[in-house]
Write a structure and sequence with these properties.
2 copies of one chain form a homodimer. The first copy, chain A, is mainly α. Helices cover about 60% and strands about 0% of the residues of chain A. The interface of A and B includes residues 170, 180, 207 and 211 of A. The structure holds a DNA duplex. Chains A, B: Keywords: DNA-binding, Transcription, Transcription regulation. Chains A, B: Pfam families: TetR_C_43, TetR_N.
DNA sequence: TCCGAAGCGGAGGACATACCTCAACTTATG
DNA sequence: CATAAGTTGAGGTATGTCCTCCGCTTCGGA
């Protein structure tokens, strides 16, 4: 609801654009706000028509301001993506690797449950759109995950056969539950995340996990699993 | 590939139909075979056009033989559904409840990974189509799952806070992985199923699962998660 | 106050996908 | 070989998304 801090797009670009007319700037903010809501609810697959309708403007206006979906996403998600990265670093500060891991998983799952668009970006197709100042999110979060996993392995708290590549997959499974249970039992995903967390804990009797995923495997799965922002063409 | 045992639809119905012409019966078998393949690959969302094309017949022929999707599904999946139920009973025969549970989960996950249509039917919308002799699949498998869970709880091998309602959810998560990894790493889902299984095992340190799912919750999630066979109307 | 540039809206064209029908044609079989 | 049974696939209906374009409205500087 609070429409503060949306950031009128002054400077930050090649920038030879004159400032928008007052009414136009207002509409722009409305569009951004609407985009956040719509993408949060329906994921990146949401359409421009939905955003326009929610913002109470014509479709043409949305297109005029954001000629491509990427342009809109970049602005709408800038802040959320930063939060996501910040959260990961926070997790790293936990006293033990295990706590860091659990904290990260729970936070990420929570964020992805609340904002389906963020999930799509964080786990998926973000590769395809060059995000403004920051690189694509996976590049910023992945090294952190890697360090967390390493620490947990050193402690011996995390079962040895788990790798960083598993993390995105776990989050996809959980966010899938979150998404489909949202209307009925929005917290349902906690349950299955906890089950997975308990499965990750080192224990005397745990089964064989088989060959680990490679980064390419994960990439391919994400591409197939999550919506591809860009319309085919 | 073997096209044996498809069962020409003699008797078994109100039945006043005369036998099909030889060429028609052949086409019918082709269609059923094609339907099995297509539904296995693409799930219940597959279209009549796909089936027709795969069978090498015109769309009109498919419609003539199977006026509704349900009619086609009923025939195409009769055997697979029976297998599914048989498998569940087999699991029940395991020496311990825990082994029964693990066996059931692995078998079900495997079947759902191989046949996406079966998954859709087993976990989802089967409610909507009244399946020929057998009731909808969930009704036949659910009591078995329930007994397995009970036994495992009595033994104390399964953590106490897990319920039957969790089983379909676990299978959905896993089959989602199976589906999206199919082209790259078809066995990937084993890994995540194992993680879940290890999370299900009773252990000194396992986290709090929160409120269990109710049958209605599961119903609602399944409805939202899995394709609704029937076109809207 | 006024007017030109900036902005707006949303009908509608282009395209894709799915469902399902039907009239013209082909084929098995008594 | 006559005829009922069967086949075909183009095309009508419906739905949904993308995106453009042009007539109209509004802002804001002169």
């Amino acid at each position: 609801m609070s429409s503060t801090g949306i950031g009128s797009r002054t400077s930050t670009e090649g920038d030879d654009e004159r400032p928008l007319r007052r009414d136009a700037e207002l509409n722009r903010q409305r569009i951004i706000e609407a985009a956040r809501e719509v993408f949060a609810e329906r994921g990146l697959a949401a359409t421009f028509d939905e955003v326009a309708h929610r913002a109470g403007v014509g479709i043409g206006t949305v297109y005029r301001r954001f000629p491509t979906k990427e342009a809109l996403l970049a602005v709408a998600f800038e802040e959320r993506l930063r939060e996501h990265a910040r959260m990961a670093e926070e997790a790293l500060a936990a006293p033990t690797g295990w706590e860091a891991l659990v904290h990260f998983l729970r936070q990420a799952a929570g964020m992805h449950a609340e904002d389906r668009g963020l999930r799509d970006l964080a786990l998926g197709a973000s590769a395809e759109l060059g995000f403004s100042p920051h690189e694509r999110i996976r590049d910023s979060v992945e090294p952190i995950m890697r360090r967390i996993i390493e620490r947990a392995h050193e402690e011996g708290s995390l079962r040895a056969d788990v790798t960083v590549e598993d993390i995105p997959l776990l989050l996809m499974m959980v966010s899938e539950v979150a998404h489909h249970s949202h209307a009925v039992r929005p917290e349902a995903y906690h349950r299955y995340l906890q089950l997975l967390i308990d499965g990750l804990r080192r224990s005397s009797k745990s089964g064989n996990l088989g060959a680990p995923m490679t980064p390419d495997d994960v990439e391919a799965m994400a591409r197939q699993w999550l919506p591809t922002t860009l319309p085919r063409r």
